[in-house]
Design a protein that fits this description.
The complex is a heterodimer of chains A (about 425) and B (about 325). With about 425 residues, chain A is of the alpha/beta class. Helix content of chain A is about 45%, strand content about 15%. Chain A is globular and about 65 Å long. In chain A, about 55% of the residues are buried. Chain B is mostly helical and about 325 residues long. Chain B is built from 11 helices and 2 strands. Chain B has a two-stranded antiparallel sheet with strand order 1-2. In chain B, helix 5 packs across helix 6, helix 6 crosses helix 8 and helix 10 runs antiparallel to helix 11. Chain B is flat, with a radius of gyration of 24 Å. The chains are: A alpha/beta (about 425), B mainly alpha (about 325). At the A-B interface, helix 3, helix 10 and helix 17 of A face helix 10 of B.
Amino acid sequence: MKSSWSTRVLVCLAAAALAATGLAACGGSSDSSGSRELTFFVAIQPGGSIEEVSKRCSKESNGKYTITPEFLPTDATQQREQLVRRLGAEDPSIDIIGMDVIWTGEFANAGWVEEWTGAEKKAVTEKVFPNVIETASFEKKLYAAPFNTNTQLLWYRKDLVKQPPKTWDEMIEQAEGLKEAGTIQVQANRYEGFMVWANALIESAGTPILSSPETVELKQGPTEKALGVMGRLARSSAAPSNLSTSDEDTARLGFEAGESAFMTNYTFAYASAQAEAPEIGKEMGFARFPRVDASKPSKPPLGGFNLAVSAFSDNQDVAFEATACLAGKESQKTAVELDGLPPSRSDLYTDKAVTKAYPGFAQLVKESIEAAGPRPTAPAYQDVSSALQRTLHPPDKIDGEDTESIYDELKSNLEAAVKREGLL
Amino acid sequence: MTVNAPANPNPPAAAPKGGASSRTRSERKLAWMLCAPAVIAMLLVTAYPIAYAFILSLQDIDIRFPDEGGFVGLSNYVSVLTSELWWTDIFNTVFLMVISVAIELVLGMAIALVMHRAIFGRGVVRTAVLIPYGIITVVAAFAWQFAFAPDSGFVNNLPLISDEMDWFGGRFSSFAVIIMAEVWKTTPFMALLLLAGLVTIDSQLYEAARVDGASAWQRFTRITLPLMKPAILVALLFRTLDAFRVFDTIFVMTRGAQDTESVSILGYNQLISRLNLGLGSAVSVLIFICVFLIAFLFVKGFGAKLDEGRPGG
C-alpha cells in the first residue's frame, strides 16, 4: 500500500498549501486597519536593487504600506506588451508602474497613469536633470517620478586605440585600419535598441525626429548625414558579422571576447567587463558618444525608468507616498550600488555610491545625460518606433553614399505612423 | 493503376430525405440533444469571438486613444489589402507553409513506414519519434535558436560552416532555420497521421502483389499511396492549416525581422503591440478567411474526408 500512502501525503501537502495561501490572502486584504498592499510592476534588475528599495520603503512607512515587486521581462518591448494589456483592461492589481522613458506619452494620453502635482511633484523632481523630467512629462504635466536614468558612452580598447575618435566616420576609419579587433559594437537588431541608436545619430546630426507628437521634423540634410553613418558602418569591414541581430548583450559579449576595439553601450558594460573579462576590462577606455557632424556636439541616448501611479489602483492615496520613496535619493543610491543604474538626480554624481560604480567616469556620465537627445514623446510612439525600425533595418540596406531615397521613404513612413495609418 | 482503391468504404450515411419513420425522427432528435452541449460550447468559444472580431474590424478602435474612433466600414480591410506588407507576409507564410509541409510529408511517410514495419522495439521506436512533438514549440524554437547563435551555438563550429555565419541576419538563412525547426517539431505529427492510414491497409494486398511480381517501389506507388490518399489528405490538411498560422518559431527566432514575418505575427503586432484593435481584427479576419479557403480547397477540391484516415474512422 505504498502508493496510496504517498498519494495521501501529497493530498495533505496540497491541502496545507491551499490553506496557507488562503490564510495569507485573508490576512492581506480584509485587514483595513493594517498595512496596505501595493503592487509594483517593474522590469527585473539582476542586482536586486528593486527588492531592496521595496523592502526599505515598506519598512520606513511604519506599517502604512507594503510594497511587493512584480517583475517584468528584461526586454523593453515585452515589458510594455505585458503592461499595456493589463492597463488596457483597467486592471486594479497594478499600483505602481516602472515606466520606460518612452511610454509616458502613450500611458498619459490613454489615461492609465495619474498626474503628479503640488508638493509631491516638487519633491520628486528636486535636483533631477531637466531632460529626464521631460521624459516623465506629457503636455507639460508630470506623470511619473524619475528613478534611474541611463546613457550610452563610447567604450574603446586603450591598448589598440591611442586617441578615442571624435566622430563616427573617424571611428569607422580607425576600426578598418586595425589588424585585430577591427569592429564596432552597436545595437542594430530590429528592436527598440535600434531606435535608440538611430535616434541618437539623427539627434546628434542636428534634427529631432518629431517636433510635436503628430509632426515629423526630420530635416533632410542632418538626417541624411545620420543615415549615411549607419549605411557606411553596416557595409564596412568595421561591422561585426552579427550587426543586424546585435543588442546590448551581444555587443558586450563581442567586446569582452576581444573582437572589437569600439562599442557604444550603456554603463553596465564597464562592470560587466571587469567581472567577466578582466584582461579586456583593464584596457577599457571611455569617451563621449561620438559625433555625426564634426562641428556639432553629440547627443547621446537617454534611457531609464520613471515610476508612475496607476489610474486603476485602489490605493492611490498611499501609492504616491510609496512611489516618492521608491524613486527617492536613497533608492537611487541603492540602484547605482547594486545594479549600476545612473541616478536621475544630478547632485548624486559626486556621491561615493556613484563614483565607486563609475570609477573615473562619473562626470562623463553626468555630462552625457545632460547633453542627451531623448527619443520623441508621443502617444503613438510605438508606431513611430516600429516604422523607423522597419524602414531602416537591416542597416546594410542603406547606401552610405546615397541616402536620398531612404530618407524619403523614412519621412513618408513616419508621417503615416504619427497618424497611426497602415500596417506596421 | 491496376489496383484501385475500393469504392467509398463508408456506407451511404445520409438517411432518406422524405418519409422518415417516427423512429428515425426520434433518433435524430436524440442525436441533436446529445450534440447540443458541444454545439453550444463551440458557439460560445468560437462563433462569439469570430463575430466580435468582425465587428471590431469595422471600427477605428485603438486602446491608446480611448476617446477617438468609431465605425469606419471596410476601410481597415482596404488599408490591409493595399499594404505591401500584407502581401509580403502572405508570401512568407505561404512559402514557409509549402516548403515545410512538403518536407514533412516525405519525411513523415518514411518515418510512418519505419514505425509500421519495425520488427523489434516497436513501442520504443514510436515513442522516440514522437518526442519532438511533445516539446513546447517555444522551447524547441529557443533550442534551435541557441544552436544557430553565432556566439554560443554549436552549428558554426561544424565543418564546412563559417564561424562568422549570422544565421538570423539574412532572409533565407533565417527561413532555413525556421523551416528546420518546424519540420523537426511537426514531422512526428504527420508520421502519426500517416501511420494511422497505413495500418488500415490489408496486408493481403501486398502478398497478392508480391505473388504477381511487383517490386517494392511498385507496391508503394500502386497499393500504399492510393489506399492512403484519404489519410494523406487529412494529414496535409491539418499540417497546412497549422503551418499557415505559424507564429512561435518566427517570434522567438527573428520577431519577424529580415522579412521573415508571417501573417500571424503581423496580426500580433497590430493587436498586442500597437493596440490597434480595428486593424488587428481586420488582419485576424483575413487570416481566418485564408484558413477557411485552404480547408475548403482540401475538402472540396481534393476530396479530403475528415471522417476517414484516422484511427477508428
